[in-house]
Design a protein that fits this description.
It is an enzyme of class 4 (lyase). It catalyses: 2-(N(omega)-L-arginino)succinate = fumarate + L-arginine. Its EC number is 4.3.2.1. The structure is a single chain. The chain is mainly alpha-helical. It folds into 3 domains: 83 residues, Fumarase/aspartase (N-terminal domain) (Fumarase C, Chain B, domain 1); 281 residues, Fumarase C, Chain A, domain 2, CATH 1.20.200; 77 residues. The protein is 61% helix and 3% strand. It has a two-stranded antiparallel ribbon with strand order 1-2. A two-stranded antiparallel sheet has the order 3-4. Helix 3 packs across helix 19, helix 10 packs parallel to helix 12 and helix 14 runs antiparallel to helix 15. It starts with 9 loop residues before the first helix and ends with a helix.
Length: 511
């Protein structure tokens, strides 16, 4: 994805071409690098041809759109445009593996076109540089990766919402600092991850919108004297518009940062989800499906949540990719610098690793078997209903801090393994702190009910809380938000498809 920046003239092309106009690669010459710059160990060091296989298809589409525009603007004749477009079809059919050796895929494709068409094939590169070409190819390919990531995220959200709907009354111990805190439900816990995924969707949509702007026509960085129609090539490639400033178009990679950052945020959330599932599996709250587990090579009784541990590690991979990208971009001067060749791989790392990790984490969660009997017993562990008792007293008129003191004094004296105090113990503590019986504020039946984890959950019916009706409202709202996001993705997909359909039609008419 490097760039020599200058389009060779016919004389230079002739030096490396045979009588039939083909490029003489026997001496190392290509459409751009000629003999003078074609040798030495640095060529291999600089080459990105193998890695560029990822953008092979994107480059062909960018070449087609640019050629169509050149013909429409009468910059290139119709016959030459038709020959170039036909050659591009041949190059595509042959595949990336049949490209001539070159510094990058852009140079290789141009060399292959000239080899098929003759010197006139070099007209394809009129009014552009590899600088704007590569920036366009990266955005084109990243756009499709973002679509796939978005589809994975919205699919995961739908699965999580279905899982939550099945467990609105399944008790689950809630923790802070990994200590028993307050009882909640499995549904409430699941929704605590669907919410971040919804925000991840927003971030990825924003990254898509930043990415889906065309740099093509900016040339090396300073524009071109040719009467190009940048809006037309953007339209044919399904972009929403152009990156207006030609220097910005070729040198900025903030869209890579935005994408990688969004995926890293997603991976960090997934790491927490995976850790919860590993911990819950170890506490026997659930059993991970065999499809997402493995056994030990020496201990036959073991069932390990290995896939989830890899999900945790993916967060480190994504964070490392983001740091690598930011470090590469830090301090680069305007305009184009070949450091930018090393800016793209970290983004590919993120788009290749994070969506599959999401699929695995979601699959492990939605196929797990929850041990509801274990969960019901654990939900009251560690006097986790204590806050509910303090709330009851506060609701009856006791200042909350005083109510907190009453319940805390009882909690201090609980025997090891005792999940909740007896009512008599609560009454004695209240007498000591309040100077009057606890029943002066709350009757015994209500207190006994409050010590029950089921009732403790039901009490917490504030918006966003774990009570079944509050969770049901959250699920409904989340489904509406999901439908909106699916519509936003479909709308963007339609715009891209319309442009590419028009490009296909224009090419077919000219070949």
């Amino acid at each position: 994805m490097t760039d020599g920046e200058d389009t060779p003239d016919a004389g230079e092309a002739a030096e490396a071409s045979g009588a039939d106009g083909t490029v003489d690669t026997a001496t190392g010459g290509t459409a751009i690098r000629r003999d003078r710059f074609s040798g030495g160990p640095a060529r291999g060091f600089m080459s990105s041809l193998a890695a560029d296989e990822r953008i092979f298809g994107a480059d062909l589409q960018v070449d087609r759109a640019h050629t169509v525009m050149l013909a429409e603007q009468d910059i290139v004749g119709d016959d030459d445009a038709a020959a170039i477009l036909s050659a591009l079809d041949d190059v595509e059919a042959a595949g990336h593996g049949e490209l001539p050796d070159a510094e990058d895929v852009h140079e290789a494709i141009e060399t292959a076109v000239i080899g098929r068409v003759g010197l006139e094939g070099g007209r394809m590169h009129t009014a552009r540089s590899r600088n704007d070409e590569v920036a366009t190819c990266i955005r084109y390919r990243l756009r499709s990766d973002l679509f796939e990531a978005l589809e994975t995220v919205v699919g995961a959200r739908e699965q999580l919402l279905d899982a939550a709907a099945e467990h609105t009354e399944t008790l689950l111990p809630g923790f802070t600092h990994l200590q028993y805190a307050q009882p909640v439900t499995v549904a409430h816990w699941v929704l605590s991850y669907e919410g971040p995924l919804a925000r991840d969707t927003e971030r990825l949509l924003a990254a898509f919108d930043t990415t889906n702007r065309s740099p093509l026509g900016a040339a090396a960085f300073a524009g071109t004297p040719f009467d190009v129609d940048r809006a037309r090539t953007a339209e044919l490639l399904g972009f929403d518009g152009t990156v207006a400033n030609s220097m910005d178009a070729t040198s900025s990679r903030d869209f890579l940062v935005e994408t990688t950052s969004a995926l890293t945020t997603l991976a960090t959330t997934l790491s927490g989800l995976a850790e919860d599932l590993v911990v819950y599996s170890g506490r026997d709250y659930l059993e991970i499906s065999d499809d997402y587990a493995s056994t030990s090579s020496i201990m036959p009784q073991k069932k390990n949540p290995d896939t989830l541990e890899i999900v945790r590690a993916t967060a480190g991979e994504a964070q490392g990719a983001l740091q690598r990208l930011l470090t590469t971009l830090k301090g680069l001067p305007r305009s184009y610098n070949i450091d930018l060749q090393e800016a793209t791989p970290p983004a590919w790392t993120a788009v290749d690793s994070v969506p599959p990790a999401l699929e695995v984490a979601t699959g492990a969660l939605t196929t797990a078997e929850w041990h509801e009997d274990v969960l019901a017993g654990e939900a009251a562990a560690g006097f986790s209903t204590a806050t509910g008792v303090a709330d009851r007293l506060a609701m009856a008129g006791v200042p909350f801090r005083t109510a907190h003191e009453v319940v805390a004094s009882v909690a201090e004296d609980l025997d090891p393994g005792q999940n909740a105090p007896a009512i008599d113990e609560l009454e004695a503590a209240a007498e000591e702190v309040l100077g009057e019986p606890l029943t002066a504020y709350v009757d015994r039946e209500t207190l006994e009910s409050t010590l029950d984890p089921v009732e403790s959950v039901a009490m917490r019916d504030s918006p966003g809380g774990p009570a079944p009706e509050a969770v049901a409202a959250q699920i409904d709202a989340a489904r509406e938000r999901l439908a909106t996001d699916e519509g936003a993705i479909a709308e963007r997909s339609d715009v891209v498809a319309t442009g590419l359909d028009e490009l296909e039609s224009e090419v077919a008419d000219r070949v």
